[in-house]
């Protein structure tokens, strides 16, 4: 039998408020932590924030005392959960190191979701975003090398995620109309697809918020420029992924789905967490969220006449896990790197007509200026003689994106010989 | 008991539109839609759209009637909302049966049905502003919502009757007539809700002057 939050007993809501000491958790050691533990912390921070902000929006659309007060209580506990989770990040982890963690999440979370996504269009959308975040890690990795010195990248991402060019950031800047996607239909969607869509929206939303706020805290113009440029892509990604959600889902339904997704992810991460102390936090928060699902379900029943069992699956789907996706990403790179989008459809860039709005937008932002995402690589080559990469599976699958390193040159020669 | 919230697990099917994605295994083919009205000389896609939308309106109305029965503090009013909920559930059964007889999935949710759900659920959002009114007025709002939903249900009943009347003699025409006949039996209760609303408004206006 699988795990069904509706059949479990959680911690009563009135017992969930914690004191400052309980919330001010000891951070993990950035040198010792498993990269995917850091990734899980980042994901759950984003999930909690998304739930909190959605609840605030809901609260702004009602003046019903029982609804507003129940939301306020649930939200306060979610806020405390967010603090307990995000305060696991250590103060000696620099903004750029955290940024690498965010991009590792964006890569391995997105790839993991895409690999298990049942719907072909949603999977395509995830793959499309994946290659862009994959490139962001490469750009930031080169920046941290320049600003904080070598070896920082490997310390953060380990050998779990490769670092090399994806779809070049410079070509990711599309006209806003071309980032809007189609959405699933609440009456036919697979429950896992909904959870995937909610999870990726939360992850990208927090990344967007993070970059737009920390970007100007840097002094070097190159760093400020790169954060600015990639923050704009994160806006595109939020536009893309939020489009996947069915706008027909009501406030009460969304409230339930948020808490259900929190249950799903705490439960998923609890089963694979390697740090026993942090696993206990996932377990505690799961017990809290089980109660939140129950309370949100009561609201739904009272105000919409819908029993939560009618819209939730009988058990949680297969868990979302962090694992290596190197081969998968290389395959996606090989087949999809040249894609862009026209409205909600994905098309090869070469198929765009000369008067496509894509080119006008590109000219507006890239024309006649140093593009930070390109300049950071040029600067790295200038300073170190080559760009920074971290590859474990051989040269880049796209020949033109291979570096000038001896390894890549040998690989290219080998391919030509064959 | 009728399924009042259609999901993939309860047999949801659909038809993609400009902004919606339907999993291939749950998509109703254009051919199946076209075929369902052919024998009666009707536009099958449109017919399926209409029947699906009427069914969806009944589902949402049943849910909201249940919610109103839960929220009201007046026993007589609770009974009215419970009767409405049961009536709407019966309508769902009738209309799902009609879709099935038309050769379509019982829980086909057409683009028009999505819109019907949105319209009805929007009406049902009214109690979210309950903090702006007193408890007495909230009771009236619950009745107001029921009356608005009844108005659409009456219109749906008339529309289905007109469609059934226009169908060329065929098995489809027979099924449409049967379903239409079943829906007409609800007219008295639907009109009673509307009359109740008018009476209450009148009573308020004629009551003690403030």
UniProtKB/TrEMBL annotation, chain A:
InterPro entries: Ferritin-like_SF (IPR009078). SUPFAM superfamilies: Ferritin-like. This is Ferritin-like domain-containing protein. It comes from Nannocystis bainbridge.
From TrEMBL, chain B:
This is Uncharacterized protein. It comes from Nannocystis bainbridge.
């Amino acid at each position: 039998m699988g795990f069904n939050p509706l059949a479990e007993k959680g911690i009563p809501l009135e017992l969930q408020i914690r004191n400052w000491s309980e919330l001010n958790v000891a951070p993990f050691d950035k040198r010792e932590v498993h990269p995917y533990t850091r990734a899980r912390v980042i994901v759950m921070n984003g999930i909690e924030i998304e739930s909190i902000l959605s609840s605030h929006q809901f609260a702004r659309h009602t003046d019903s005392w029982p609804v507003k007060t129940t939301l306020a209580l649930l939200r306060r506990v979610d806020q405390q959960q967010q603090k307990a989770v995000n305060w696991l990040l250590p103060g000696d982890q620099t903004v750029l190191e955290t940024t690498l963690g965010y991009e590792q999440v964006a890569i391995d979370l997105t790839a993991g979701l895409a690999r298990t996504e049942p719907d072909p269009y949603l999977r395509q959308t995830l793959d499309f975003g994946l290659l862009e975040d994959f490139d962001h890690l490469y750009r930031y990795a080169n920046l941290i090398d320049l600003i904080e010195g070598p070896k920082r990248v490997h310390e953060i991402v380990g050998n779990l995620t490769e670092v090399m060019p994806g779809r070049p950031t410079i070509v990711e800047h599309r006209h806003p109309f071309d980032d809007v996607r189609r959405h699933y239909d609440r009456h036919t969607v697979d429950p896992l697809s909904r959870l995937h869509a909610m999870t990726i929206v939360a992850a990208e939303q927090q990344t967007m918020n993070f970059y737009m706020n920390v970007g100007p805290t840097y002094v070097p113009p190159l760093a400020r420029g790169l954060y600015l440029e990639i923050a704009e892509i994160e806006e595109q990604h939020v536009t893309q992924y939020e489009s996947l959600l069915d706008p027909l889902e009501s406030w009460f339904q969304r409230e339930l789905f948020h808490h259900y997704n929190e249950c799903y992810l705490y439960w998923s991460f609890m089963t694979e967490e390697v740090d026993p102390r942090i696993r206990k936090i996932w377990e505690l928060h799961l017990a809290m969220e089980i109660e939140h699902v129950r309370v949100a379900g009561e609201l739904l029943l009272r105000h919409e006449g819908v029993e939560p069992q009618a819209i939730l699956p009988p058990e949680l789907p297969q868990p979302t896990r962090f694992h290596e996706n190197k081969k998968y990403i290389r395959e996606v790179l090989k087949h999809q790197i040249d894609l862009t989008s026209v409205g909600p459809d994905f098309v090869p860039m070469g198929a765009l007509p000369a008067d496509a709005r894509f080119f006008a937008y590109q000219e507006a932002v890239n024309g006649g200026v140093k593009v930070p995402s390109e300049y950071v690589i040029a600067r790295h080559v200038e300073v170190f003689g080559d760009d920074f990469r971290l590859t474990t599976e051989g040269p880049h699958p796209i020949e033109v994106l291979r570096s000038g390193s001896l390894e890549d040159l040998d690989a290219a020669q080998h391919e030509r010989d064959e | 008991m009728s399924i009042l919230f259609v999901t993939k697990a309860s047999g949801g099917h659909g038809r993609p539109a400009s902004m919606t994605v339907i999993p291939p295994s749950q998509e109703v083919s254009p051919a199946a839609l076209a075929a369902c009205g052919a024998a009666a000389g009707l536009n099958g896609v449109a017919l399926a759209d209409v029947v699906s939308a009427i069914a969806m309106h009944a589902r949402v109305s049943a849910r909201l009637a249940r919610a109103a029965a839960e929220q009201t503090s007046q026993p007589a009013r609770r009974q009215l909302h419970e009767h409405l909920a049961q009536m709407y559930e019966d309508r769902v059964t009738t209309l799902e049966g009609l879709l099935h007889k038309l050769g379509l999935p019982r829980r086909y949710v057409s683009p028009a049905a999505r819109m019907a759900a949105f319209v009805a659920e929007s009406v049902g959002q009214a109690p979210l502003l309950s903090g702006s009114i007193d408890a007495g007025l909230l009771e009236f709002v619950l009745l107001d919502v029921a009356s608005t939903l009844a108005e659409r249900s009456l219109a749906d009943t008339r529309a289905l009757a007109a469609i059934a009347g226009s169908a060329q003699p065929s098995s489809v025409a027979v099924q449409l007539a049967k379903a239409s006949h079943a829906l007409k039996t609800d007219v008295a209760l639907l009109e009673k809700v509307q009359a109740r609303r008018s009476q209450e408004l009148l009573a308020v206006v004629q009551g003690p002057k403030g």
